[in-house]
Specification:
144 residues, two-stranded antiparallel ribbon, 4 helices, 2 strands
Length: 144
């Protein structure tokens, strides 16, 4: 059986027929790569400028309120964690933390609804609200 040089042959997957592949030189590859990189950098610049424009269109007071409420919730979660580690605290003494976390969770959910869908701050607010909610549910069902 004779084996032929099959380097320049391609089989078309749709028709199953052989096709000859055209020779490509190194300069063709360089040109192709340069064109692809230019297209990619142009689309990246457009996307980042769109993100900046959308972030600027959001009310700065809403962003600050979202950040401050998230930070306050994280601080309350931290205090709650420290209280759980302290054996002198009993269940009823933890109620103030739980009530505060429940209020902040509701506030975070309202703020999240006001933020645009593509805003990274919305994801942060959602994560903080979810963690706060999980901790309150764990307390209410008696895990602690």
């Amino acid at each position: 059986m004779k084996i032929e040089n099959q380097v320049n042959r391609i089989i078309n997957p749709l028709s199953g027929q052989d096709q000859k592949q055209k020779e490509v030189s190194g300069s063709d590859f360089q040109t192709l790569l340069k064109n692809r990189l230019q297209k990619a950098s142009a689309s990246t610049a457009l996307t980042s400028s769109q993100e900046v424009n959308s972030a600027q269109s959001i009310n700065p007071e809403l962003r600050l309120e979202s950040l401050s409420t998230s930070e306050a919730t994280i601080n309350t979660l931290d205090s709650y964690k420290n209280s759980l580690a302290n054996l002198n605290f009993k269940g009823p003494q933890l109620e103030s933390y739980i009530d505060d976390l429940e209020e902040k969770t509701l506030a975070l959910q309202d703020l999240k609804g006001d933020l645009p869908a593509g805003d990274p701050l919305r994801g942060l607010v959602d994560q903080v609200a979810a963690i706060s909610y999980v901790e309150t549910v764990k307390y209410r069902r008696g895990d602690y």
